[in-house]
Design brief:
Structural class: alpha+beta
Helix content: 40-55%
Number of helices: 5
Order of helices and strands: HEEHEHEEHH
Distance between the termini: 39 Å
Strand order of the largest sheet: 2-5-4
Length: 138
């Protein structure tokens, strides 16, 4: 598993550090702000990556509108200077979630992607370890 924080529009980083680590069909789990700018950053990031790599299995893990409602996250008003009218829009920053909750969301999604439950793998590993230790003692 590889992790990267794009921190907005950082084309150079995407080209030099991220793209060499990807191939078509890879899964990308994305965390981003729930707002106009966040959606544009996500769309641009995906467009840049897929242009060079090919289609990716893209999934926004957070923030989603459903999560904003579920966790009753504070909605703020932001201005976007890229627009003549100031681009006033509602926004929820990813940081509105606690670091613990963000970590739990990522861990939960990664566990869902495993071919079998991690708990079952750990039990099997413990059993095999005991069997191997018994054989070594003989």
């Amino acid at each position: 598993m590889k992790l990267a924080a794009t921190n907005g529009q950082v084309g150079g980083f995407l080209h030099t550090d991220v793209i060499p680590q990807l191939h078509a069909g890879m899964r990308v789990l994305y965390f981003g702000d729930w707002d106009l700018s966040g959606n544009q950053i996500e769309a641009n990031t995906r467009r840049v990556l897929e242009h060079d790599v090919g289609t990716l299995r893209w999934e926004r893990v957070a923030l989603t509108e459903q999560q904003v409602r579920r966790y009753r996250l504070p909605i703020i008003m932001k201005h976007d200077i890229r627009y003549k009218d100031g681009g006033l829009h509602q926004a929820v920053e990813t940081e509105a979630l606690s670091q613990e909750l963000i970590t739990q969301m990522l861990q939960r999604r990664l566990e869902q992607l495993l071919p079998e439950p991690l708990e079952r793998v750990l039990r099997r590993e413990a059993r095999q370890r005991r069997q191997l230790e018994a054989l070594l003692r003989r």
